[in-house]
Amino acid sequence: MTTDYPSHIAGARTAVPGAGDRSDNVNPATGAVLGTIHHATTADVDAAVAAAQAAQPAWAALTGAARGRILKRTADILRRDTAALARLEVLDTGKPISEALAVDVSSAADCLEFFGGLAAAVQGEHIPLGSSAFAYTRREPLGVCAGIGAWNYPLQIAAWKAAPALAMGNAMIFKPSDMTPATALALAEAFAEAGLPAGLYSVVQGDGRIGAALATHPDIAKVSVTGSVPTGHKVMAGAAETLKHVTMELGGKSALIVFEDADLENAVAAALMANFYTQGEVCTNGTRVFVAEALHDRFLARLVERTAKLVVGDPLDPATHVGALISAAHMDKVLGFIETGTREGAELAIGGKRRTDGALAAGNFVEPTVFARCRDGMTIVGEEIFGPVLSLLTFREEAEVVARANATPFGLAAGLMTRDLARAHRVAAALEAGVVWVNDYNLTPIEMPFGGVKRSGIGRENGLAALDAYSERKSVYVSLGDVDCPYPT
Length: 489
Ligand code: NAD
Fold this sequence. Notes:
The protein is of the alpha/beta class.
């Protein structure tokens, strides 16, 4: 049985079939068609904007506590429906069910809870200006905001954009990737059940063209995109026409540095977490693993030993560690990088092949892959692969490894493993990255601001910083005396 994925505008699913294009939603693990995505048209985008404009002023006029209650209720609904939502996410993305249950749904719920709680705590400032004046600031919403999502964490991305936007009194129009349409729609239904007035969170389905319609829409005040660097360029250029606020969560080629004094087991565990979670389709992945020369052989041996134990398989099987890549085209791209790695002289320590045994033949499965003896100039070391491919490099000196880690146009994340406290903080400060993990990797608690520097992005999601990203500060100057005017009376 297949299903339909329409847009969700003004509180309801749109008609099926709609007037826009249609495409198949394909299960990456089986190649089976899950259903039909009914793409929005630009008229649908206009309708979503109109519904948002109609609903947003009354929403902004509520108390933060009233808005927050609805967000927290939505979090409860997501937690109640965890099993069903996790399954939807697995069918769309191919990621292991164990991850979807442990991370994807709870991360979205945590986010709604966090911003639901903060909504009542948003305050302006009082600025004393002597005895005859003072000023104060008001935190005002931007109005209608747009979110554009990638396919690797569809529900989490929708929540990370919608929750802070709504907490601050904005409306959010969200476009999921056209490869993962399901859970943004499920979130719309959870919001509706929680009592969110119609129009405040709409979903428009479609590809980059609908994304571009959002980025350039004259009545949208802000666009937040999660995607690749080339898409970020286009969205920012489109947004410039109407001088929109932008948040850009883009790609990366992050470094994980393992110093000689690191705990070996923890370092290997961090390297696994930094490369093979969600089959390597994680923007922050530490795909350049720099290991101190003295530790290299022991590290590599243990890394290979543990990688060999990872179960590649049916994403719906709780025992699976590595699921299917999002599409056949993406799998071919990843396999192409692996071929290039071998051709350029990297040593394939484990993995490297597509898995086609039994039922896996119908899906996009690639073995977790470790390349040893990589060099900085290699293609696999320079480019974002977005698959389960780890490149191992060695280093001697701290200054050397920091310089090499920073020698990339990207700057999303980095990690370092050491027992030396001073070195940990010195290197964390020196790394050009929006997020640095010390003695761990790939944890993104909602309390912590998240985002990149350099080509990896602009702005921050999560934490208190996200509230700034969805609001303006209005300064109000209040005079307590007469107007001091130099002109003749
Ligand atoms: P993508 O850039 O192909 O697409 C992202 C979204 O942008 C999709 O919804 C797509 O339809 C839309 N889009 C495409 N062209 C557009 C245009 N011209 N105007 C407006 N919207 C457009 O990325 P993807 O393949 O879905 O995701 C993988 C990429 O996303 C990787 O580079 C990864 O690093 C990055 N990513 C970053 C983060 C982060 O938080 N920094 C998180 C997840 C993924």
